[in-house]
Amino acid sequence: MSDVIESRLKELGIVLPQAAAPAANYVPYVISGNLLFLSGQLPMEDGKVAVTGLAGTDVDLAAAQRAAELCAINILAQAKSALSGDLGRITRVVKLNGFIASAPDFTSQHLVMNGASNLIANVLGEAGKHARAAVGMASLPLNATVEIDAVLEIAL
Fold first, then answer.
1. Is residue 28 part of a domain?
2. Which residues contact 61 (CB under 8 A, 6 or more apart)?
3. Phi-psi region of 46 (alpha: psi -120 to 50; beta: other; left: phi over 0)
């Protein structure tokens, strides 16, 4: 299965970055039983936050969706690191929690999260279909537009 996932990544033109190191007193992931809990991922690209500001004022919907895609790419990078390079061990993406820095009148958080949901499903197939939340926030760390955490079921 890992070869299939790597092939999908290549077809989509996605190169997973090195998993980001924690920026404070937390760990990037925790494995408990057959669940992998991934800490929140920002829309990092080339070592910096690629999309900043509030959705609906500073950032349009397309750019916010791109931020969610970058978060999903970083989720996959963290999962690959946690699973010793074997994304094929992911049996199910259980849930994505999306936090979107939003203008007070912005109500399309669910559409922003489609960027992450679509990417995860395209890469992982059926195993990538998940429950999710999309929540508007006043602000996020480093002025990021989106932060997403994840819970994955894994083969032991």
1. no
2. 55, 108, 111, 112
3. left
Where in the sequence is the domain holding 8, given as residue range(s)?
2-14+38-154
pLDDT of residue 1 exceeding 90: no
Query: Would residue 14 be called left, alpha or beta, if left means φ above 0 and alpha means ψ between -120 and 50 degrees?
Result: beta
How many domains in the chain? 1
In a domain, 27, yes or no: no
| 135, 95 Cβ separation under 8 angstroms | no
Angle among Cα 139, 107, 57 to the nearest 5 degrees reads 55
Does residue 96 belong to any structural domain of this protein?
yes
pLDDT digit string (tens) for 17-75?
A: 999 988 899 999 999 999 999 999 999 999 999 999 999 999 999 999 999 999 999 99
Backbone angles phi, psi at 101, to 5 degrees: -70, 120
